[in-house]
Write a structure and sequence with these properties.
single chain; 442 residues; alpha+beta; 4-stranded antiparallel beta sheet; elongated
């Protein structure tokens, strides 16, 4: 029986782009779905991994009543990324016509084992002793058959000891509550330090400095909520409302961070107390795009790859994120261009040269930050073993922390010539040199 190859390729894409957010208990609703492949969740099992499935409101609809031969081609299985590539090759070579027929997948349950008539409710407990990262997949190898069901899936690892407590976080993510909590404490300390700096330098503090403080505080709260979110998931399989707070602070942190980069790039409060029309347009583009990006992130996290629109939302999120990252670079480029022109015309070459150097440095750092957090971190997540997934997350947080520290250090309030420290003697010497150059030209 022929199955569309595009659906199998789609699952391979899901393997490569799906972030491991589906560690908690997942509730999925499938309605009149005839897709041959439906991916539910990805999870890193230890040698004591378990999968619980609860299926309700199960019904099949097609041109004929399903018999045993058809039901044997319906079922759940677990599959690793490498195994799925082998399955694709087997289908391509016509060795098999259904993923359930491959010896590379681990069958969890096929519908031919169900009693007749097919029950509307059934439960299953499956144990997995081979430690690896698996994706829970439902296969429908009968294209004319549509299936409806509610699926409650819970994947977890049993911890050692007498208690056999369940750990609903994937192997490689179980340390994340402590990681996020540690970084949140670091940002709270940075917030307190920045407040002390603003107090000591209060005569030279500008509005942008308070905006910087708000960005750091929101980042600290975002990490704290994420730590609590992961902690509850680890113990119970559900976030118990912490995910709502996490999404709120993540939304506010994203908007304020991109807005801060734009404001610094335009020189607002550093060089001028206003924004030009083109700079305002950048903000009017970035802020709505951040709203869309956060909506897409919520849909991606909450629905999981089983949703029919999951890939679309994933593409929307990636596209919007790239556009935002590119948009925030334009104001910095404009400021560099203006400073370069000013250094040649207004007689303050030394001052403008220092400003130009600073903005060039900031431009390079912003590019490095965006590249590292969007490309390098993803590459680390892809090539690193699932057991060390936390390493890529730590790398991203360290890069973000370094970016925050650099921004605060370079644009901190100063008593003399705020933001761009340069001696009066150097400025006067530069002006005298320009006068001599003018006289020489005359």
């Amino acid at each position: 029986m022929y199955l569309p190859h595009i659906m199998y390729l789609l699952l391979l894409i899901l393997f490569s782009v799906a972030s491991l957010t589906g560690a908690e208990i997942r509730h999925s609703e499938i309605r009149n779905d005839d897709r041959p492949i439906i991916a539910f969740d990805e999870f890193g099992f230890t040698h004591r991994g378990q999968l619980q499935l609860n299926i309700t409101k199960l019904s099949l609809s097609g041109p004929q009543n399903p018999d045993t031969s058809i039901l044997s081609k319906l079922g759940f299985f677990l599959c690793t990324r490498d195994a799925w590539i082998h399955v694709l090759q087997q289908i391509e070579d016509a060795e098999i016509t259904c993923a359930l027929g491959s010896d590379s997948v681990k069958k969890v349950f096929t519908f031919d084992a169900l009693p007749n008539p097919i029950p509307t409710v059934w439960n299953l407990l499956y144990s997995e002793s081979d430690a690896d990262r698996y994706t829970l997949v439902f296969a429908n190898c009968f294209p004319q058959l549509k299936i409806s069901m509610n699926v409650r899936s819970a994947m977890y690892n049993l911890e050692g000891g007498k208690s056999d407590r369940r750990d609903y976080l994937s192997a490689g993510k179980t340390v994340l509550p402590r990681v996020y909590f540690l970084f949140s404490m670091i940002y709270f300390v940075l917030s307190a330090f920045w407040i002390s700096v603003l107090y000591k330098k209060r005569l030279t503090v500008f509005g942008i400095h308070f905006f910087m403080l708000s960005v750091v505080v929101l980042k600290a709260l975002n990490l704290l909520c994420e730590a609590e979110d992961k902690s509850y998931i680890k113990r119970t399989g559900s976030a118990h409302g912490w995910d709502v707070l996490f999404y709120i602070f993540s939304f506010l942190k994203g908007i304020t961070l991109f807005t801060l980069i734009v404001l610094i790039g335009t020189g607002w409060s550093f060089l001028k107390p206003y924004l030009q029309d083109k700079e305002k347009k950048v903000l009017m583009i970035v802020i709505p795009l951040q709203v869309v990006a956060n909506i897409a992130q919520v849909v991606i996290d909450e629905t999981g790859p089983y949703g029919q629109d999951w890939v679309t939302w994933k593409q929307v999120f990636l596209l919007v994120d790239v556009v935002c990252c590119c948009a925030v670079l334009f104001p910095i480029v404009w400021s560099i261009k203006n400073l370069r022109e000013a250094a040649r015309t207004d007689g303050k070459a030394a001052v403008n040269l220092m400003k130009l150097t600073l903005f060039r440095q900031y431009y390079i750092v912003v590019i490095c930050y965006i590249y590292f957090t969007r490309v390098v971190v993803y590459a680390l997540e892809t090539i690193t073993s699932y057991k060390y997934l936390w390493a890529s997350i730590v790398a991203g947080e360290v890069a973000t922390l370094a970016f925050y520290v650099f921004t605060g250090y370079k644009f901190k309030p100063e008593a003399h010539n705020p933001y761009f420290v340069i001696d009066d003697e150097e400025e006067e010497a530069a002006a005298e040199q320009m006068k001599l150059d003018d006289e020489f030209e005359l």
